[in-house]
Amino acid sequence: MTLEQRIRNLAVPQGPVDVVLDTDTYNEIDDQFALAYLLRSSDRLNTRAIYAAPFFNENSTGPEDGMLRSYEEIFKVLELMGEERPVYKGSPRYLPDERTPVKSPAAADLAERAKAYSPERPLYVVAIGAITNIASAILLSPQVAENTVVVWLGGHGLDYHDTAEFNMMQDVAAARVVMGSGVPFVQLPCMGVVSGFATSRPELEYWLKGKNPLADYLQANTIAAAESYAKGSAWTRVIWDVTAVAWLLNQEDRFMLSRVRPAALPAYDNKYTLNQDGLLMRYVYHIHRDALFTDLFTKLAASEEGR
Questions:
Q1: Topology adopted by domain 3-301
Q2: Domain residue spans of the chain
Q3: pTM for this predicted structure
Q4: Whether residue 280 has pLDDT greater than 70
């Protein structure tokens, strides 16, 4: 890929584009918002497939269980929306090293699907979990790095004291594979950047409660999750993953600010190092919180007849 083409692919797409979403949907409450926002933006984003990503925290017994729970949660959101899309199970475990892919239906689909695209007409991969499936697809077929653009919610801001963010620290090897592969790469860092994209109970209820089954599910799920640890105190909840979808809708910087910079790689000591190959990436450094929430809530609250 030429430098000129890489710069073009690191810019916000101007026309409708094909997208696949890689999501650990059962991990917490923000993936459901991102999936719904993607499907409710169908005038510009054509969702071709959805991949279930592994995760391991208090909501799962291990990476495979997290992936399977996410797989089922994807279908729950699709049912609430009255939508159908191809959905693929992802990796049951994280990469064992930076050379060995973990085969899964999701990785195989991406490796095959990318063949129909080109640097001039890329497939956009929005990743909002551990990036294992994408890394495995690149290791299975290096052509994936030529024919896609990867937009990832992962890692922390470059000025933050470490890189130990949930999506990144689960599979550092996978992050290094993807970020070092040469794929045009857009990073939305968590702490220090996307951490400002937070909402509250009154706002959720005002915009979403009673609007439709999807909106009711999202607001109730979010409020219940926050009340489980913050009942009786003031709280806001970050809806992290929406911002990765919003990058593809960011014409004229309406939702966020970013810059092109030398690519950084996560190291195994929870720090960033520069990629010595001289590659460029796009780094998001500010979210226009109010503008993005207005677009998100408006789309989620729309009735079936009004869309």
A1: Inosine-uridine Nucleoside N-ribohydrolase; Chain A (3.90.245)
A2: 3-301
A3: 0.96
A4: yes
